[in-house]
Structures are given as C-alpha cells and as structure tokens.
Amino acid sequence: MENPSTGLARFLPLSLQGKLAWWLAVLFLLYQFNIQTTYSVINPHVQHTLALSLSQVTLAASAYNWVYAVCQTMSGSFLDKYGTRRTLLLPIALVVAGVFCYARADSFIELLAAQVLLAVGASVSFVSAGFIGGVWFGQKKYGLLFGYVQALAGLSSALSITFIKQAVEQAGWRSVLLLAGCAGLILYLLFLMLFRDPPPHYSDFSSGGSGKLLDDLLQIVTRHRDILLLGLWGGIAFGSQLALGVVWVPKIAAWQGQDTATGGYAVAALWLGLGVGALFWDRLGYHRAQKKGIISLGFAVMIVSLALMLLPLGQGQYWLIVLSFVFGFGNGVHMLAFSCAADKVPSSILGSASALINAAFFIIGGVLISLPSLLVEYTGTGMQTALFSLVLALGLAQCLVLTVDAATRPPSTPGPTTSAR
Questions:
Q1: Which ranges does the record mark as transmembrane (predicted)?
Q2: From the DSSP assignment, how many helices (H) and strands (E) are in the chain?
Q3: Are 203 and 138 in contact (CB under 8 A)?
C-alpha cells in the first residue's frame, strides 16, 4: 500500500482523515453516477443529433455496463494490493476524459468510445467507496457503509435529474457535458491534494489479499460459491433499476401518453426510492444473521410495483411517479448482497468479492437494458409485453433467493481496535 503520509490531509487528525477520504471517494462515485444518470435525460437528444436507432441507444448504455463489469472484476484485486489512492488516480482521470469525449461525439462509434472510457474509469468507484469504509472504519461497518454509499448515489441522482433536464433544455446536452468535465477536473485536483490511505493496521480490516486477480477469483469460486449467487439475484434487481432508470421509464411515460416532464419526475422518483430504500433495507438487515425473508420482501415490492406500472390502468401521471418511487424503494434491498458477502468471506479478499458482485450487477444490467428493445425489434412484440420480461426476470430472482441461503453470519469477530469516528 502507498505511504499513507501522501497528501495535505496528513496534517489533520486521523479521525478527520478517514472521514475526508470516504467523502472524497463518495464524491467520485456521485460524479460518475450522475454522468450515467444524465444519459436517461439526454439520450433522446443524442439519438436525434447523431441519428441513432433505438437499438443503438440501448446498445450504448449496455456497452457501458459490460465494459464496467469486466474492469470491475480487476478493481477489487488492485484495491486489495495497492490501496485506494494509487488505484483511484488514473480512473478518475479516465472518467473526466470520457466526459469530454462524450461531449464531442459526432457518431455512434465516438459515442461508444466515450462510453468505454467512462466505464473503465468508473469501474472502481463503487467498490472503492465501500472498501475505504472498511479500511478506515473496520470490517463490521463494511456492508453498512455500502448501503450509505448507494443511498447517497440514489438521492443525488433524484435531486440532480431535474436540474440536468432544465440545463439541457436551456444550454444543450454538449454544453452540459463540457461543464461536467470541468467539474471533474476540480474533483481530480481535490483528490490529488487531500486523499490518503490509512496507516497500516489502523482497523481490523485486512486489505492484504494476494492482489492477483486469478488467485483471488479462484479462491472465491472454489471456497465461497455463494458469492456468485449473491451477484446473480442482486444483478437482476439492480439491472432492472438500471434498465428503467437509464432508458425505459421515460419511454413508459411516453407510451402512456404522458409528457416528457412526467417521465423526468418518474426517473427522479425511481432514484429517490433507491436512495431511501438502500438505507432502509441495509439498516433492517444489518444485524440479522438470516436475511432471506427481508430480501424476498424487497423483491415482492419490485414485482408488484413494476407490474402495476406496466398495466394500462389509466391512473394518470402521479400513478407512474409513485410506482417508480416504490419500485426504487424495493430495489434498495439489493445492497444486502454486500452485507452478505462481508458475512461470508475474509476481509483479505472482500474487495475482490465485492468487485465480482458489482461486476455481475452491471453485466446483467447491460442485458436487461437491451432485452426489451431486442424483443420489440426482432419479435414484433409490443413495448408493454417486452417490458414484462423484467417482471419475469425479477420473479426468477425471487425464486433463487427462496431456494438458497441468502446469508448466515459466521461467529462474530472482535470489532476494530481503533475507529475513525
């Protein structure tokens, strides 16, 4: 791990250094998460400007998720071996570069290239935010801080999406992305000056994994196979959220005869629900050894709310907004996958295990984003019927949760000897 004295933060008390490091990592996560959310607002404008088909619009979103997922599998091992500062500096620069390329894109190929840059850089953001919570505050808070991170990401997207929509209408999508790129440069400078890793053995969290991708993944696959199941049901849950939030909720609003403003409010409600739900379900399940019942309840909320959203009940614009919030709230239960992982694997490979789970989230998310449009384009299925494929996927995940051991907490280990509270 890098010398922890790096950065101006070394002049602060250790308790403040830990909080500053965590908040800087969270800011990076919120930055890239809001860039991704922006795609749900600007994709109609991008589609018109670049003359793209619906399949190309969804493919660009899916490509981001697939590249993100592939790179995600390596990020955990880098964190385990090199620490967060050395791992994060290049990815932040890549995200900022991707934003500027995004703003300058004039063709589908250039849009894909920008999405690849964004995905490579963003792939470490989520896992590193949770990882930093572990190395500074101890393994007992690892899963809990993941819930806080997702809650902040959801709330941030919900609050920013209306502002982004208004900015795009007034200044154009390219200008908004250029401004976002400038904000990213400021974030990079703050991270360079203020971020640091903790001193060795600061908490009970061991980041001393092999740092070798194949070794860590082999250990997970052979000794901790439940991690793959956590990634599967969690990926279907979060993938459905991505599919709705990035592409499909605005199109559902249009299909139901609602205006674009309603679609924007519904997307905001979806992410707001996720933020509130991630915090609620994470706190509810944090101290429970067996989380199966809680996870099943969350899936039931998602299935019912999405089915009601797709049925032609004619309840008006507020019905879609309320159901979007309810779906997002239920979707927050997917955060328990990380708490389950913290219960099952040693901290030395927890970064790799979390990266593998989050990679599964985005691989499945990429599939679920494109699935409805492929059904519409190649089978002639109507949009309503095609979107019910997401309901079916959630039902399959619900069955998986009911048939596997969601999590069983091992004998408790001593808490951290030092805490940055």
A1: 20-42, 88-105, 111-137, 144-164, 176-195, 227-249, 261-281, 293-311, 317-337, 349-371, 383-404
A2: 16, 0
A3: yes
pLDDT in tens, 99-140: 999 999 999 999 999 999 999 999 888 778 777 877 777 656
pLDDT of residue 210: 46
Measured CA to CA, the distance from residue 326 to residue 354 in angstroms comes to 26
Q: Provide the number of structural domains found in the chain.
A: 1
Task: Give me the CATH number covering residue 398.
Answer: 1.20.1250.20
In 3D space, the residue among 264, 213, 236, 208 whose CA is nearest the CA of residue 44 turns out to be 264
Q: Is 336 part of a structural domain of the chain?
A: yes
- Secondary structure class of 408 (helix, strand, coil): coil
Residue 203, pLDDT > 70, answer no
Token digits for 312? 């032609």
Task: Assign residue 172 a region (left: φ > 0; alpha: ψ between -120 and 50; beta: otherwise).
Answer: left
For 296, phi then psi, to 5°, come to: -60, -40
Residue 408 counted as domain residue: no
Residue 2 lies inside a defined structural domain of this protein:
no
Per-residue pLDDT at 408 exceeds 50: no
Segments forming the whole domain that contains residue 54: 11-196+205-403
Q: What is the pLDDT of residues 361-372, one digit of tens each?
A: 888 988 898 888
Q: Is 5 part of a structural domain of the chain?
A: no
